[in-house]
Amino acid sequence: MADRRFSVRHLPGVSGIALITFVVLYTPVLILVIYAFNAGPVIGRWEGFSLRWFTAALENAAFRNAARNSLIVASVAGLVATLCATLAALATTRGRRFRGEGGIYLVLNQPLLVPEIVLAVALMILLAQIKQATGYHGLGWLIIAHSTFCIPFAYMPIRARLEGMDLTLETAAMDLYASRFYTFRRVTLPLMAPGVLAGFMLAFVISLDNVVVSTFVKSPGQETLPTYLMGELRRNLSSEIYAISALLLFASVAVVAASWLITRRKP
Amino acid sequence: MLEVQSLSKTFGIGASAYHALRAVDVTIAEGEFFTLLGPSGCGKTTLLRLIAGFEQPTAGRLVLDERDIAAIPPNRRPVNTVFQNYALFPHLSVAQNVGFGLEAQRRPATEVKARVAEMLDLVQMGHLRDRRSSELSGGQQQRVALARALAPKPRILLLDEPLSALDLKLRKDMQTELKRLQQETGLTFIFVTHDQDEALTMSDRIAVMEGGRLQQVATPRTLYDDPANRFVAGFIGDTNFLQGEARGGSVTLAGLPPAPLAGANARSGPVTVLVRPEHVVIGHSVPQALQVEGRVERLVFSGTDTHVHLRLGQGETLVARTQNSLHSGTALEQGAAVNAFLPLEALRLLPDEAAHG
After folding, report:
1. Residue B80 and residue A190: Cβ atoms within 8 Å?
2. Nearest CA in chain A to B107
3. What is the pLDDT of residues A160-175, one digit of tens each?
4. Residues 6+ apart with CB under 8 A from A13
5. A96-155 residues touching B, CB cutoff 8 A
6. What does the DSSP 8-state code read for residue A5?
7. A136, A203, A212, B226: which could form a disulfide with A154 (CB 3.0–4.6 Å)?
């Protein structure tokens, strides 16, 4: 007798629906990636394999500038968000329960609760005032804005890692004459490190492809990769945009895959 | 010498308060193998955690070398723990695990290295010094956990059910090993277990605990031969409890002639008499014994012994344990009527529990 335990796979039509879902989700992406390698300029007419659009993109100064901005913002905002998320995760899993702990979750998950467009408009109004007052129009504002909504994404894997760790290990370290700080440095930190790294990578990717907040917060003339793509689309639909999109896709997939591989290792 | 003085621990407050430990008093001698024995929830682990410093007592004192250590945090107490799940650091090698306590104390590297080598030799783990702890078997992890706890030369070693995760064969080997280590190092061991066999074979003294109180603190022999109360008698080994009546210096069990028993002088009224199954004799008469008649209700074979369950004339049950030998004489049959003999010197009068509250 075969294994008769309930499995959703045995329901009629499930594999069909799953297949359709995959096709709908990935066909457009696949077409985009294929046409990024098209020799001709027209979508829908394949003229042979070529890397000319990638070359064109990499020689495009505006693209390079937008890519640089995106990488800077994603790296720094990712770091800031990871630092905040790490401290928050330690406080919520290791510290004593404290008054207003519920409030911490409201703060942490604000970006998930508040619609992004609302956050973007709010940030724009606030930061516009400050920009005018300070006269600073650099990337700093984008970094601050991105840090806020990256925190919950960094927080989740870190918290999961800390909750999966055996608390006896820290008790054992204390038993063996380790101070609180020594215990953190030699036991807690090394064991939570994969979660921290995964959190950073998630935050990085979330920041990298953000459009809404970036559009509202960026100063005139400033572009990140996604906002640059939006602008280009409005002017002309060239295969170069496909190549740039493909590059962005490869970068995201690489980072997410790496993050998945790291978290898969058990504590 | 560790003196536990009126130590209490209460978790929670008000109506939901849980009294894990109720005014425990005990003195643990230097170099003693001292065991805390009891069922789960009896307070033995709480007492161990208080000594380690992982919990703060609600009341009472913990005096080690004439100093009250109750308020000292665990990382400044000269006691180390072997944890139930070993709690080895998975990201460190065997040698780094063993050296952890010394490095946390900022001892010089040469001293750490020498001491780690010495400890790994002691537990015969030198050949695996560079392994990750996650690559070790249960028995090997156990040895590393021991070496790690011994390395900083604690005044007292605490062991929290360290053998419970091992299979039977390995557990027997580790019992011998632990006893050897304790004798070689001359260190005071405080060992927590719920396994009475383990406690009886390894300990110098055992504290039997129940309901957050010490029921009896004594050598294994005394606990077994002279249990202080019904709980201890029932928890350590198998026992027959017989109801009787004390009057004029002797005890009368139902339907039997009065028998003079030690301690009967001071008592009158209903009493409980204990007899261990291996002291009950079946089939041949012995001098100075009470004779009872019964019917064999059940025979349980357990390798070296057979447990004979008798139904006595008054409806009470009596279990006897007879050794299986090549020539056991007449084999007992279920349903057969037999005479059983209870040697007077094997009968123990259970102390009056009402008098102790």
Report:
1. no
2. A177
3. 999 988 889 999 999 9
4. none
5. none
6. S
7. A203
- Closest partner CB to B105 (pick from A172, A177, A186): A177
ipTM field: 0.82
Residue B143 near residue B125 (C-beta atoms within 8 A): yes
CA–CA dist B77, B347 (Å, integer): 46
Percentages helix, strand, coil for chain A (3-state, rounded to 5) are 75, 0, 25
Chain B's closest residue to A185, CA to CA, is B104
Q: Report the alpha-carbon distance of residue B36 to residue B43 in Å, rounded.
A: 9
AA identity, residue A80: V
Residue A3 CB neighbour total at 10 angstroms = 6
Q: Given the structure tokens 């004798």, which residue do they identify?
A: B183
Q: What residue ranges define each of the domains in chain A, with the CATH number in brackets?
A: 60-235 (1.10.3720.10)
Q: pTM here? A: 0.81
Q: Mean pLDDT score of chain B, rounded to an integer?
A: 90
pLDDT lower than 70: segments of chain B: 327-330, 353-357
**Tokens found for residue B109:** 């590297």
CB half-sphere exposure, B187, CA atoms < 13 A: 25
Phi, psi dihedrals of residue B111, rounded to the nearest 5°: -65, -45
A145/A140 Cα distance (integer angstroms): 9
A190: closest chain B residue by CA: B91
SS3 call for B318: strand
Question: Are B90 and A190 within 8 A, CB to CB?
Answer: no
Give burial (CB, 10 Å; 0-12/13-18/19+) of B179: middle
Closest CA to A121 of A210, A212, A211: A212
- Residues 150 to 209 of A: which have CB under 8 A from any B CB? 166, 168-169, 171-179, 182, 186-187, 190-191
Whole-angstrom distance, CA of residue A22 vs CA of residue A14: 12
CA distance B196 to B217: 14
Of all residues in chain B, the one with the smallest CA distance to A174 is: B75
Distance, in Å, from the CA atom of A18 to the CA atom of A21, rounded to the nearest integer, reads 5
Residue of B75, B98, B133 best to disrupt the A interface, most CBs of A under 10 A: B75
Contact between residue B344 and residue B290 where contact means Cβ atoms under 8 Å apart:
yes
What is the DSSP-derived secondary structure letter of residue B265? G
- Asked if B87 lies within 8 A of A191 by C-beta distance, the reply is no
Q: Nearest Cβ partner of B87 from A166, A179, A182?
A: A166
> A3 by DSSP, 3-state: which?
coil
Q: How far apart are alpha carbons B24 and B22 in whole angstroms?
A: 6
Reported as a single tens digit per residue, the pLDDT across A88-135 is 999 888 877 777 777 888 878 888 888 999 999 999 999 989 988 888
